[in-house]
Amino acid sequence: MPCRRPARPRPILHAPLVLTLSVILIAVVVLEAGDHLGGRVSQVEGLAPWPVQLGPEFIHGDERNLVKDLADARGWTYRTLEWPDRYYFAPGHADGGSTTAPGGSSSTGLVDASIADESDADVAECHRLFADLPGVPAEMANAAEDFSAEEWLRDVVKASPRVIALAESLYANDFGCSLRTMGMRETAIEQKCWCYGEKYLVLNRSLRDVAEALGEGVETRLRARVAEVTRERNLSETGEEGPLLTVRGERSNLGESPEGVNGAPFELRARRCVFAAPLGALGDDGGSEDDDEEEYSKEKASSSPKPSSSSPKPSSSSPKPSLTDASVVSAVRFVPALSASKRAASRVVRTSNAVKILLAFDEPFWPAGLWDVVCVGAFLPELWILDFPPKPTGPCADAAVARRTKAVVTFFACGDLADALTREMSREEVLERALAQLDEMFGEHAGEPAPSRARLVDWRFHDWASAPHVGGAYTHPSVGAAGAREKLAASEWGGALVFAGEATHAGVNPCMQAAMETGIRAAEEILARVSIDDRGREIPTRSR
Ligand SMILES: Cc1cc2nc3c(=O)[nH]c(=O)nc-3n(C[C@H](O)[C@H](O)[C@H](O)COP(=O)(O)OP(=O)(O)OC[C@H]3O[C@@H](n4cnc5c(N)ncnc54)[C@H](O)[C@@H]3O)c2cc1C
Known about the structure:
This protein has 544 residues and is of the alpha+beta class. It has helices spanning 17-22, 66-74, 113-119, 121-132, 149-156, 161-172, 184-193, 208-214, 235-238, 289-303, 340-348, 399-404, 415-423, 427-446, 451-455, 484-489, 512-527; strands spanning 10-12, 28-31, 43-44, 52-53, 59-60, 78-81, 86-89, 109-112, 200-203, 219-221, 224-231, 245-251, 265-270, 273-275, 333-335, 350-351, 354-361, 372-376, 382-385, 407-414, 456-463, 475-476, 497-499.
């Protein structure tokens, strides 16, 4: 093992690129405002005999997927699943109209996805529309000339209400938003860039292990909230070796509050910084949203080809953003301020909320083998049921937990619905309606009208908009945002400030592998600017 020589630390706000940087013996320190490595990869213990995932659960795709590669390299096992597994069509869901001609086949109740995909004309039509994206031109004159999925389905392709209801549950919810806020140009970019395959993989262990594996051997400071990054001196101007950036912050006081630590300031000097916090942390460091959006649109207008006469009518105005809770996100101040184009891009790429409602039961009452249901016309749009090997330590290992929880149903709701669930309903009301939905879906199979209540042993409601330092779920294809992610990814301050994180993925991919890819891209950007000696150490600028 080579000895890691201490050098000036190069702060990094949470990113898998630490692996890439640390193997060449550049001193790296990860500053993480939260209490664990992995950020949105987070879990709740004590609900089930395994850690229940609050954030990501699936490895999306088994091709070119860095998360899968890491799992394979570690010899970790996983299950491979086909998504969706089933659909549930609630009573009355097609009242608004359907593609299916009278007398044709339109599914009701719980149906195998493979059967509905073949036999239900609306399901087939919904898949066809999202595969072919008719009427969504690859290029439009400027970023403002875009339209939402809702406008596209209703006004451009004139889909039936049942197809639109399907698209809301099947596509928009999966993209982490609502049809109203889903931008079609970014949807087309996502489709073009997706190269990972369609399989869903579930690791037979917590995804927390992935985050911890990525952080191995790297100096990490948890509960270290960065408040300001300042460029003190421009290295290329002076040609001298010396501190370039100052990173100031304080020990974080959101979540746990260890005595004597809260608010304690820290300061670090570094040559370069990779900023990999969620979008909200870019904050608002000058300029109005209108100015920035105008600037972004103008810039796009001058660089994009003119629209063809067949282009569909663009959205008249940007959709109102979904509500995310800015008060829980720590905005970082940059001195000097970030470029106007970066600030503008951070406003057009949107993050919606997502809610997970986790219901623990002492026995299953649904069909054996069922693992995922996309629900159409029901209260909540999707549920899944996953289990993991029991965890031998911590609150999960409590024998009482293992006795009482045999299965956990996870309901997943995003976008406008997530906002409504968090802001317009009490948690108890959400619970009641979620249980009523389960009864409606599985009562017939269970042979009793209300199987869920008597079997419920515990539950949680997790609202991502109020998650400290994250303030939302993940970025989604956003109206008017085509091209903005390249701006989010662009380095600043002559390459001293580099950006990573899912929002900076040019392929509009908000998944874990995308976050990892952006980390590698950021590491490569840094390495392109440093010289390494034959022992893998950075050659100081003065002696180059
Ligand atoms: C409910 C939900 C379900 C999801 N499902 C899936 C899935 O099944 N599969 C999948 O691949 N992806 C899924 N995702 C998306 C996936 O979680 C993200 O794409 C990925 O984790 C993002 O990684 P990141 O490093 O960009 O950001 P994060 O993981 O959010 O890391 C950013 C870190 O920055 C920290 N930070 C913020 N501000 C500061 C500051 N001022 N100073 C220091 N640190 C700061 C935060 O605490 C956070 O830890 C899901 C996400 C959610 C929320």
